[in-house]
From TrEMBL:
This is GNAT family N-acetyltransferase. It comes from Variovorax paradoxus. It holds the Pfam family FemAB_like. It comes from the Bacteria. Coiled coil: none annotated.
């Protein structure tokens, strides 16, 4: 460790984009949400800022002039935009006259997508980065550290460092049709996907799609640089409207999405629903790519200016799934929460976060809570597994 140096920087502009992205490229599944350009857009657009309760602190590990490991960390004064809920922990601190905020979060703001959070050249560097994070939290007198939606390698390093683990459930679709000899391959088309489902689920999906078609709604999609600025504008109108309908201002600004269009267009796929030649809804999908190949699709944002029965299901699930099948994408991740996704063949998967609390008494209490919660998650997963939408056998 003597030849390693830890540096904490408050701005990504103090780091080399190529060095950051080189760390990400070495991960098993490079996430578009951990790219330098994505994180920079969050901050430079003002979407994630100290004013909105996200104070960035990038923890970096150096050996000589070489960047060996790095992660985005945030000093938080609230728990909004995280999607791993710790409000009860904050309330318990308050009831005992203790301050839960500020705390530290290693995450991608507003993005509950599993993936690498601790970018590192090798496992040793990742372990040292976790140790540096805990030491930094102690130095800053922060109540706690929370690494959210980590990759397996992150969780292994956190476990080795003694952090507590917490599981939540998401719903993901896999492009895997059973083969004749037991092997799997991608579905041939949407009909072959439907054929893998039970009769009731297949019938329900066809009914939902028919309702949208009979309402006169058609879809078009565009990707990357082919997404017109007018479509980005209409998308943002829909996106902002969805948030405001739920009584909240949108997390992300129009400037953020413009930066996405300018700096990493290949990572975005936009579906536009139209009726009588006018756009009425949009669904924005993020893509993890290898060259021109789309590996994983992530359902991110949607919105509509007109109400059509079942339009949400068509825009957010059926159109993206059909695209994934046609383009060979391996997986579609539908985002946080929502058991209704199982009826569309998005199956439950566990996601994991890691937690460290400075207060020994509260750390013990949270550890006991997580044991009980973990048992509940296992039972929940078993219950969901009994409700598979696929044909038996």
């Amino acid at each position: 460790m003597n030849d390693y140096v830890i540096r904490v920087v408050a701005s990504l502009s103090d780091l080399d984009p190529k060095a950051w992205n080189a760390l990400l490229a070495g991960e098993a599944q490079p996430s578009p949400f951990m790219r330098y350009e994505y994180l920079a857009a969050l901050h430079d657009s003002g979407s994630a800022s100290p004013e909105s309760g996200w104070m960035p602190q990038f923890i970096t590990l150096w050996r000589g002039e070489q960047l060996r490991a790095a992660c985005p960390a945030y000093i938080k004064t609230h728990s909004y935009g995280e999607y791993v809920f710790d409000w009860a922990w904050a309330n318990a601190y308050e009831q005992h006259g203790l301050a839960y905020y500020p705390k530290a979060v290693v995450a991608v703001p507003f993005t509950p997508v599993p993936g690498a959070r601790l970018l590192a050249r090798d496992p040793q560097d990742r372990t040292l980065l976790v140790q540096a994070l805990v030491a930094w939290c102690k130095k800053e007198e922060l109540s706690s550290l929370h690494l959210l939606f980590g990759a397996d390698a992150d969780i292994a390093a956190c476990t080795e460092a003694g952090l507590m683990l917490r599981n939540t459930v998401q719903f993901h679709w896999t492009n895997a049709a059973p083969g004749e000899s037991g092997e799997t391959a991608g579905y041939v088309d949407f009909e072959s996907f439907l054929a893998s489902l039970s009769h009731d689920k297949r019938k329900k999906i066809r009914q939902e799609r028919r309702k949208v078609a009979e309402a006169g709604v058609t879809f078009r999609w565009s990707r990357g640089a082919d997404i017109a600025r007018s479509d980005w504008d209409f998308f943002y109108r829909c996106y902002a409207r969805t948030y405001r309908e739920h009584g909240n201002p949108p997390y992300l600004s129009r400037d953020f999405f413009q930066r996405m269009a300018d700096t990493m267009p290949e990572a975005w796929l936009l579906f536009v629903a139209e009726r009588e030649g006018k756009p009425i809804a949009t669904s924005l999908i993020a893509l993890s790519t290898h060259g021109d190949e789309a590996l994983v699709a992530y359902g991110r944002y949607w919105g509509a200016v007109e109400r059509v029965d079942c339009l949400h299901f068509e825009a957010c699930y059926y159109q993206p799934l059909a695209w994934c099948i046609a383009h060979g994408a391996r997986r579609f991740e539908g985002g946080a929460q929502g058991e209704h996704k199982m009826a569309r063949a998005l199956m439950p998967v566990k996601t994991t976060s890691a937690h460290w609390l400075a207060h020994p008494g509260f750390a013990d209490a949270v550890e006991r809570f997580l044991e009980r919660e973990g048992e509940g998650i296992e039972n929940y997963m078993d219950h969901l597994g009994e409700r598979s939408p696929f044909k038996a056998g």
